[in-house]
Protein backbone atom coordinates (compact mmCIF):
# COMPACT_ATOMS: atom_id res chain seq x y z
CA UNK A 1 0.00 0.00 0.00
CA UNK A 2 1.27 3.48 -0.86
CA UNK A 3 1.37 6.18 1.78
CA UNK A 4 1.58 9.95 1.64
CA UNK A 5 3.48 11.56 4.53
CA UNK A 6 3.33 15.09 5.91
CA UNK A 7 5.15 16.48 8.96
CA UNK A 8 2.69 17.41 11.73
CA UNK A 9 4.74 20.30 13.11
CA UNK A 10 7.72 22.53 12.37
CA UNK A 11 9.95 20.46 14.71
CA UNK A 12 9.23 17.33 12.66
CA UNK A 13 8.29 15.37 15.76
CA UNK A 14 5.59 13.40 14.01
CA UNK A 15 4.13 12.38 10.69
CA UNK A 16 0.64 12.31 9.28
CA UNK A 17 0.37 9.18 7.15
CA UNK A 18 -2.47 8.79 4.66
CA UNK A 19 -3.09 5.69 2.55
CA UNK A 20 -4.74 5.38 -0.86
CA UNK A 21 -8.15 4.86 0.79
CA UNK A 22 -7.93 8.12 2.75
CA UNK A 23 -7.25 6.47 6.12
CA UNK A 24 -5.03 8.65 8.29
CA UNK A 25 -2.62 7.66 11.04
CA UNK A 26 -0.30 9.82 13.11
CA UNK A 27 3.19 8.43 13.60
CA UNK A 28 5.65 9.78 16.19
CA UNK A 29 9.16 10.45 14.85
CA UNK A 30 10.75 7.82 17.05
CA UNK A 31 13.07 5.22 15.49
CA UNK A 32 11.72 2.68 18.00
CA UNK A 33 8.26 3.10 16.46
CA UNK A 34 7.81 0.45 13.78
CA UNK A 35 5.77 2.71 11.48
CA UNK A 36 8.42 5.45 11.67
CA UNK A 37 11.19 2.87 11.11
CA UNK A 38 9.26 1.68 8.04
CA UNK A 39 9.07 5.29 6.80
CA UNK A 40 12.83 5.73 7.23
CA UNK A 41 13.72 2.45 5.51
CA UNK A 42 11.30 3.03 2.61
CA UNK A 43 13.16 6.11 1.39
CA UNK A 44 9.87 8.02 1.32
CA UNK A 45 9.86 11.74 1.93
CA UNK A 46 7.40 13.80 3.92
CA UNK A 47 5.83 17.04 2.76
CA UNK A 48 6.85 20.06 4.78
CA UNK A 49 4.66 21.23 7.63
CA UNK A 50 2.46 24.16 6.69
CA UNK A 51 1.10 26.18 9.59
CA UNK A 52 -2.67 26.66 9.30
CA UNK A 53 -3.83 30.17 8.50
CA UNK A 54 -5.26 32.12 11.43
CA UNK A 55 -9.01 32.46 11.28
CA UNK A 56 -10.43 35.13 13.56
CA UNK A 57 -13.39 33.90 15.58
CA UNK A 58 -16.78 35.31 14.63
CA UNK A 59 -17.97 38.01 17.01
CA UNK A 60 -20.40 36.84 19.67
CA UNK A 61 -23.89 38.28 19.99
CA UNK A 62 -22.73 40.23 23.05
CA UNK A 63 -19.80 41.73 21.12
CA UNK A 64 -22.11 42.73 18.28
CA UNK A 65 -24.54 44.29 20.73
CA UNK A 66 -21.75 46.16 22.54
CA UNK A 67 -20.49 47.52 19.21
CA UNK A 68 -24.00 48.66 18.31
CA UNK A 69 -24.46 50.36 21.70
CA UNK A 70 -21.08 52.07 21.36
CA UNK A 71 -22.10 53.35 17.92
CA UNK A 72 -25.39 54.65 19.31
CA UNK A 73 -23.64 56.35 22.23
CA UNK A 74 -21.11 57.90 19.84
CA UNK A 75 -24.06 59.21 17.82
CA UNK A 76 -22.86 57.36 14.74
CA UNK A 77 -26.29 55.90 14.03
CA UNK A 78 -28.94 58.21 12.65
CA UNK A 79 -31.87 55.78 12.73
CA UNK A 80 -33.75 57.07 15.78
CA UNK A 81 -36.36 54.28 15.67
CA UNK A 82 -33.66 51.58 15.81
CA UNK A 83 -31.71 53.50 18.43
CA UNK A 84 -34.74 53.94 20.67
CA UNK A 85 -35.81 50.32 20.31
CA UNK A 86 -32.33 49.05 21.06
CA UNK A 87 -31.86 51.32 24.06
CA UNK A 88 -35.26 50.23 25.39
CA UNK A 89 -34.27 46.59 24.94
CA UNK A 90 -30.97 47.16 26.73
CA UNK A 91 -32.70 48.96 29.59
CA UNK A 92 -35.12 46.05 29.96
CA UNK A 93 -32.31 43.51 29.93
CA UNK A 94 -30.36 45.51 32.48
CA UNK A 95 -33.37 45.57 34.80
CA UNK A 96 -33.86 41.81 34.44
CA UNK A 97 -30.19 41.07 35.15
CA UNK A 98 -30.24 43.39 38.17
CA UNK A 99 -33.37 41.67 39.50
CA UNK A 100 -31.83 38.22 38.99
CA UNK A 101 -28.58 39.19 40.70
CA UNK A 102 -30.76 40.47 43.49
What can you see in these coordinates?
Helix content is 43%, strand content 18%. A hairpin with a 4-residue loop joins strand 2 (14-19) and strand 3 (24-28). With 102 residues, the chain is of the alpha+beta class. The chain folds into two domains: 3-47, no CATH class; 61-101. The mean pLDDT is 89. Strands 3-2-1-4 form a four-stranded mixed beta sheet, with no helix packed on it. It has three helices and four strands; from the N terminus they run βββαβαα.
Question: What's this entry about, in short?
Answer:
The chain is α+β, with helices and mostly antiparallel strands and 102 residues long. The chain is built from three helices and four strands; from the N terminus they run βββαβαα.
The proportion of residues forming helix, as a percent range, comes to: 40-55%
Q: How are strands sequenced across the largest beta sheet?
A: 3-2-1-4
Structural class: alpha+beta
Biggest sheet record: 4 strands, mixed
| H and E order | EEEHEHH
Q: Which consecutive residue ranges, at least 5 long each, have pLDDT under 50?
A: none
Mean pLDDT: 89
Quickly count the helices.
Answer: 3
How many separate structural domains? 2
Tell me the number of strands.
4
**Strand portion, in percent?**
15-25%
How far apart the termini lie comes to: 67 Å
**From the alpha-carbon coordinates, what is the Rg to the nearest angstrom?**
28 Å
Oligomer: single chain
Amino acid sequence: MAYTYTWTDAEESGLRREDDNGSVAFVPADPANRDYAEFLSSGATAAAYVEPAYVAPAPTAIELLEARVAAIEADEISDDASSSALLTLIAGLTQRVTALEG
